[in-house]
Design a protein that fits this description.
The complex is a heterodimer of chains A (224) and B (810).
Chain A (H helix, E strand, L loop, with lengths): L8 H4 L5 E3 L8 H7 L11 H14 L6 E12 L3 E4 L4 E3 L1 H6 L5 E8 L2 H12 L3 H31 L3 E3 L16 H8 L7 E2 L5 E2 L3 E10 L5
Helix pairs in contact in A: 2-6, 3-6, 5-6
Chain B lengths: L2 H11 L2 E2 L5 H6 L8 H7 L1 H14 L3 E3 L7 H6 L5 H16 L4 E6 L14 H17 L4 E7 L2 H12 L6 E5 L13 H10 L4 E5 L4 H11 L7 E4 L6 E3 L2 E3 L4 H5 L2 H6 L2 E4 L7 H11 L14 E3 L4 E3 L7 E7 L5 H9 L3 H13 L3 E4 L8 H15 L4 E4 L3 H10 L5 E6 L2 H14 L2 E5 L10 H16 L8 E4 L11 H16 L2 E5 L10 H14 L4 E4 L4 H13 L7 H15 L15 H11 L5 H10 L4 H21 L5 H24 L8 E7 L7 H12 L2 E5 L6 H11 L3 E5 L3 H4 L1 H11 L6 E4 L5 H6 L3 E2 L3 H16 L1
Parallel strand pairs in B: 1-10, 2-3, 3-4, 4-5, 5-6, 6-7, 7-10, 13-14, 13-20, 14-15, 15-16, 16-17, 17-18, 18-19, 19-20, 21-22, 21-23, 23-24, 24-25
Antiparallel strand pairs in B: 8-9, 11-12
Helix pairs in contact in B: 3-4, 4-6, 4-13, 6-7, 7-8, 15-16, 16-17, 17-18, 19-20, 21-22, 24-25, 24-26, 24-27, 26-27, 27-28, 28-33, 29-31
The chains are: A alpha+beta (224), B alpha/beta (810).
């Protein structure tokens, strides 16, 4: 696994992200249970087992240090199969182009749960406490996703004053026909190195619980 | 009478009407989307002037300058660098519209960035940026300032400090709260009020984000704690999307219908935010004319806050605990960390103390060889985001205290201010500037006051000086001075007498560092907790102690009950219930185990179903003692149970943590039986050998670890190569171990493709073993395409492995 060096080419173009060093979200308890395979009305859990899972939830929270960044980039050109950013980047994806239809700008977002929780998950796995590790892992995943909601909310509020809003849906590299390789462009636009995130040559973000996403910005659209 | 007093006088006798939305009003006046509103207003001065006039004609007494986004961060985005000039000119336009009969508020909005420690903008950079804006607005002749729509308490503080360092004009601060009742950054309305009013905001409140209906409960919640007038500027309801446009749906009638409730809740400044129009303000004016203001009861005082939590220092509530562990004295590891600038122990101590029940955290970094001012600031920044508990800034260096208070996004407690001549005035001035509470330490001159009357005199002297800085008895807590009883027999009695005097006669809260009392004695904890009980009975408000001491916390909770500080013993009972529950949880014992009545084998079976890792070994020992063979325990007890766990997981009556807990209990049981199995010569033959690896370039391994655990439990020999494993290493291992199966895992599309290469390498080396592929992005079709078997999870992986082994044997 090789790490990729980041460049400052976008910064030189005046594309500077906003950084969030302490994102605060409430734990999405239902989503965590769902991720762990809990089926309401079907899964039966004893009081002691539930207490154990919930204790792991609580232990996870202070270990998750949510950080993020966001940046807006104007759309230069778009058609059915691709988007060209004002920076010149070519994003090939019909699904993405569909989602961004009518967007004057693209909102790039990134978030990470940080290293501390990943170290704890690794430690717990090694010491044979895998059941606790999977709970910590699920909490970290869901809270990192929730951090993206938080960023969308913040950016939406900022844009509302200009009569603009963020599209309800968002897209990530590696989904559908939007290749994971686009992660490198997003990494550089978002300057994720500034929030402690690294990227490998296979486009994996480290720490593991790190995510990026794209949303569109349209006049009049908002996300509550 | 100056303008500030005029405004205060107005607000004390009647409701002051503020204007409505500027942004949405300008959009209806033709301001196109995507432009900078401030620059557009400068280019279209008549439009903004007309908007101001319409609000004034509608009945607003205060108009906000159109400078919400006129800070360097936002203006620079549009290529405008003359921040002062833009602010001045827009203030002048507002003044022209208002004349001398109405008030012009210099509007300061958020920068759109987050300020340290919540974001990347330095605190001083933010203060400087706001000062640019404040200077311009002052040049334009504003009468007051309004810092509004803040989501970050630190940004609100930076803006307020910027105003206060340049002028004393009337300043309102309003924050914007989500429907959850907190700002996007997590600040609750009470913490915002406690922090901002202590720092010198003249009025505090809420604006934007919600409609009036959702805002009234927020106002009601803070009103009992408000020493300053309250402000409300709600939106015209929650926005909805109509024909692709954002619309605020509330009509002027509906909007103004809430005015009476706002007034009754203590609001003295009322206007509108997004979606409100002059018609809304007119109706507001009409509906409130003649309505009486609600009574403003005396504020409940004495509180400290963090960015996300307020702790009320109630004298009738439970004794509060200030966690003392973040202090390098006697802690070599912490000393080393602080010297190296690392913070992991600081965070750990904060977390542990929070979990143990601390209400505040004391922060002391004093030790030889350290830059205390800089280190304290860094520690405070880290703790500001890693704990919700308010901080107690503990230092003897005024510069260090000031540095920490300036950056702290809440109302801290200073530990401490004594009567030392060269420090007293300086520290009182710092405390006043940043709105901190302080610990009053009754020391003055070189002689230590030994008796309670001596201490009382000093307390009164220091208090007299503190009143000169605006402090009241609600703004400090008295440290009654705890001395060692080993050195002076009656020392504890003097401390208790001082505490009693503060509580019953002087009327101030008290704090103690309890452990000093036992210095020099053996078994100190018993002296400490006895002293705690006595101090609690004497009216102590806060104790500085180690909340991780179980004895201390138990006695504290018991004392709270006995002193009627824990009504109906609710907290005590809840804690006791939690204790008995937690004893039943970690590592678990089988619950509802109608355990009695079950045979030893049934109990082992049940323990695995329940994932009771804590009791499995003991249950196995009992079964062995009862004469059941190790072989039978495994075959008929454990294997049957783990299969049942798998079935339940497949039926979804179990979810993942239950599946794994069962597997862990099984593994623990097996490890416990291993020596016996070897002695009996009945160690079960391995079913087969499997190599597991997460492919090169991929670091995700939790799924692979689950498969590994499940395979081991099913009797497979597992060679787990870990994650990010190069193809060559998998091949080398395959050549050495000659596995029956090779299992490969990948979570990303970019790494999944390596599976194909691994299979090709292994085949080329002449090995024919089957492959099993899995991971989030791997599909059955992909596995087929590379000639591998596919398993969606650990349970299926085991089944397929069993089938493959059977095939091999058959």
């Amino acid at each position: 696994m090789k790490l990729v060096e980041f460049t400052t080419k976008f910064e030189k173009m005046g594309i500077v992200p906003v950084f969030f060093h302490a994102i605060r979200v409430d734990m999405p308890v239902r989503a965590v249970f769902r991720r762990l395979g809990y089926h309401k009305g079907r899964t039966e859990i004893s009081k002691a087992q539930l207490a154990e899972v919930e204790a792991a939830f609580q232990d996870a929270v202070p270990l998750i240090e949510l950080k993020g960044s966001a940046v807006l980039v104007s759309v230069k050109e778009q058609d059915e199969g691709h988007i060209v950013l004002a920076t010149g980047e070519f994003l090939q994806s019909a699904s993405l182009a569909r989602m961004l239809y009518g967007s004057s700008e693209v909102l790039f977002m990134g978030a990470t749960a940080g290293n501390v929780i990943m170290e704890e998950i690794g430690r717990e796995s090694k010491q044979g406490r895998l059941s606790r590790a999977v709970v910590l892992d699920a909490v970290a995943s869901e809270m990192t996703d929730k951090a993206l909601d938080w960023i969308t909310g913040h950016m939406g509020r900022e844009l509302r004053r200009q009569g603009k809003g963020v599209t309800r849906s968002r897209f990530s590299a590696g989904y559908g026909d939007f290749a994971l390789e686009n992660q490198k462009i997003m990494y550089e636009l978002l300057q994720l190195q500034n929030i402690g995130v690294k990227i490998t040559d296979s486009c994996i973000l480290i720490p593991e619980k790190s995510v990026t996403a794209i949303a569109g910005v349209r006049i009049g659209e908002f996300k509550q | 009478m100056n303008k500030k007093d005029e405004i205060l006088k107005k607000a004390s006798s009647r409701l002051v009407i503020l204007d409505g939305a500027t942004g949405t009003t300008l959009q209806t006046c033709g301001m196109p989307g995507g432009v900078c509103p401030e620059i557009w207003c400068l280019q279209n001065p008549e439009s903004i002037k007309a908007a101001h006039r319409e609000y004034l004609q509608a009945g607003a007494e205060v108009i906000y300058t159109c400078t919400f986004g006129a800070n360097r961060f936002k203006l620079f985005e549009y290529g405008e660098c003359n921040v002062g000039g833009v602010n001045r000119d827009l203030a002048l336009i507002a003044r022209q519209a208002a004349g001398d009969s109405f008030l012009v508020a210099g509007d300061i909005g958020p920068t759109g960035r987050f300020i340290e420690p919540f974001g990347d903008v330095g605190f001083e950079e933010a203060v400087d940026a706001f000062k640019e804006q404040v200077r311009g607005l002052l040049d334009g002749g504003v009468d007051l300032f309004v810092i509004e729509t803040m989501v970050d308490i630190q940004e609100a503080r930076a803006a307020l400090i910027a105003v206060r360092e340049l002028t004393d004009v009337f300043t309102m601060v309003t924050m914007t709260f989500e429907p959850t009742g907190r700002t996007l950054n997590g600040t609750d309305p009470l913490s915002a009020l406690i922090t901002l009013q202590a720092m010198g905001a003249d009025a505090v409140g809420c604006n934007c984000s919600t409609g009036p209906e959702e805002m009234i409960p927020l106002i009601r919640a803070i009103a009992p704690y408000a020493k300053v007038p309250l402000v409300a500027k709600p939106n015209a309801g929650l926005p909805v999307l109509e024909n692709g446009k954002t619309v605020f749906p509330m009509s002027p009638e509906e909007f103004s219908g809430f005015a009476g409730e706002f007034m009754a809740s203590g609001v003295r400044f009322l206007g509108g935010c997004c979606g409100t129009t002059p018609a809304h303000i007119r109706m507001l004016r009409e509906k409130t004319a003649g309505l009486a203001l609600g009574e403003n009861a005396a504020a409940i005082s004495g509180a400290v806050s963090s960015a996300r939590k307020t702790v009320l220092l109630r004298t009738d509530g439970p004794l509060l605990v200030i966690g003392e562990r973040i202090n390098p004295t006697g802690k070599k590891d912490l000393q080393a960390e602080l010297l190296e600038g690392r913070m992991s122990l600081v965070k750990r101590f904060a977390h542990e103390q929070t979990k143990s029940g601390a209400d505040l955290l004391d922060v002391n970094v004093g030790m030889p060889g350290i830059d205390e001012t800089e280190t304290l600031k860094q520690v405070v920044k880290v703790l500001s985001v890693s704990t919700d508990l308010p901080l107690c800034i503990d230092s003897s260096i005024p510069e260090a205290i000031e540095g920490a208070l300036r950056i702290y996004p809440g109302r801290a407690l200073i530990n401490s201010i004594s009567g030392e001549e060269h420090k007293l005035g300086r520290l009182l001035e710092i405390a006043a500037r940043y709105g901190a509470m302080f610990v009053l330490l009754p020391l003055m001159g070189k002689k230590l006051p030994k008796t309670s009357p001596e201490r009382q005199r000093i307390i009164e002297d220091i208090y007299a000086q503190a009143t000169g800085y605006g402090f009241t008895k609600d703004d400090f807590v008295v440290d009654a001075l705890t001395m060692a009883v080993s050195a002076e027999g009656g020392a504890a009695l003097e401390t208790l007498a001082t505490t009693r005097w503060c509580a019953s006669e002087f009327g101030a809260r008290t704090v103690m560092g309890l452990s000093n009392v036992s210095f020099g004695l053996p078994e100190r904890k018993w002296i400490n907790v006895s002293f705690l009980a006595m101090a609690s009975a004497s009216g102590l408000t806060l104790a500085i102690a180690n909340p991780m001491s179980e004895e201390f916390m138990h006695i504290k909770r018991a004392s709270d009950v006995l002193m009627n500080r824990d009504p109906e013993a609710r907290a005590y009972i809840a804690h006791a219930a939690g204790l008995s529950e937690s004893k039943a949880v970690p590592g678990g014992t089988s619950e509802n185990r109608a355990a009695h009545g079950l045979s030893p084998m049934e109990r082992i079976h049940q323990a695995i179903l329940d994932g009771s890792r804590g009791e499995i070994a003991e249950l196995i020992d009992r079964a062995l003692t009862a004469g059941i063979s190790a072989q039978k325990i495994i075959d008929e007890g454990m294997i049957a149970a783990i299969r049942e766990v798998g079935i339940r997981y497949e039926k979804k009556t179990y979810f993942l943590p239950q599946l794994i807990a069962g597997a862990e209990a099984m593994q623990k049981g097996f490890e416990h039986l291993e020596p016996q199995l070897k002695r009996d010569n009945s160690y079960p033959a391995k079913k087969g050998k499997i190599i597991l690896a997460t492919v090169q370039g991929d670091i995700h391994d939790i799924g692979k670890n689950i498969v590994s655990l499940m395979m081991k439990n099913d009797g497979f020999e597992v060679i787990d190569l870990g994650k990010d494993v190069p193809n060559e290493e998998i091949l080398r291992s395959a050549l050495v171990h000659k596995p029956d199966i090779i299992g490969l895992s990948a979570l990303m599309t970019t790494t999944m493709v390596r599976m194909k290469d691994v299979i090709a390498d292994v085949r080329e080396a002449g090995l024919a073993c089957p492959f099993l592929a899995g991971g989030a992005v791997v599909t059955r079709a992909y596995a087929d395409s590379i000639g591998a078997h596919y398993a969606k999870d650990g349970v299926e992986a085991v089944k397929i492995a069993q089938a493959l082994i059977r095939q091999e044997e058959g």
